[in-house]
Hints:
The structure holds 2 protein chains of 2 kinds. By secondary structure, chain A is mostly helical.
Amino acid sequence: MGKPERQDSFEAVYENNFSVIYRLGYRLLGNSEQALDLAQEVFLRLYQRLNGSSPVLDVRSWLYRTASNLSYDWLRRKSRFQKICANHFERPGQDVEQELIKAEENQAMRAALEELSSRDRILLTLYQDELSYEEISRAMGLRRSSVGTFISRAIKSLAKELEKGEKP
Amino acid sequence: MRCFSEKTFQEYLDGEVSKDQSRQIEQHLSECHRCKQKLVSQKAQKDFVIRKLRLLDPIEMPVAPVINSRPAKYGEPLSFFFGRFFGMTIRLPMAVVAMVVLFLAGLSLGLFLRSQSALTSVFRSKLKSVPFYISSDKSIQTVWLNLDLANYKPIAQPRIIITQEVTK
């Protein structure tokens, strides 16, 4: 007997989207271990949902939405106990100087991102992942027509923050 | 033609405008130097922000951890009974269809057997033809009577009457 649902099966979705969700988690949380935990948690939730009675119409948008919501929950919880610092980024680099430069850049980038609203941060992360406006609107619950406005504003404010950081 | 908004330029840069709109924008850009400058700076800002955001990408992507493709599904009575059967996923609609088909098959089998028994009852009835001999001086008449032996009474007119001449 053929298995027509194979393409949409949980295993296929997991294999195709794991790295995407991991990357999203890494950017938002800044830590590979937490990103891995996040990806696993997201897929566990998807598995439970698929086995329940509620169907998921757009799996990719659902994954993005759940991952971003979860990571913001985690960040909020974490910030109660400690300040998130860019030093949490680990780099298996060989060149110490290069590593230091990258760490500085990362720190500046993270500081600039933290000045943005959480909506803009998620928006830019999804935008960087080259999601279409339609997918972004579904993942974030925005109107399709307003995605362009939000993106241009978010880019503008991040660029402004980065410029501010570069000035002494 | 009036100038376009930042939102429209953002959509244009991201390839989210229709062909018609794209043609209109290009035509306008060929005429309006101010808008052209605006688009160039908007594109530069977009590229700058995306480049900076890439800094937050993980250096190494982890391999998706292998998951148990068929985890135990406890606590879900339906999937406990109909979960998997010879490696084939049985879902609720399939189970319902199977039950309906089984019910209909059972019903039609029952009706068939019932009609069969009505037919065979003719052959299994206690109808017998019994000969009676009525003799006189000149002839012997044989009268076959149809008898229902269950009720010990004739149920029909005599079937065959054979008259034989008696030769003395």
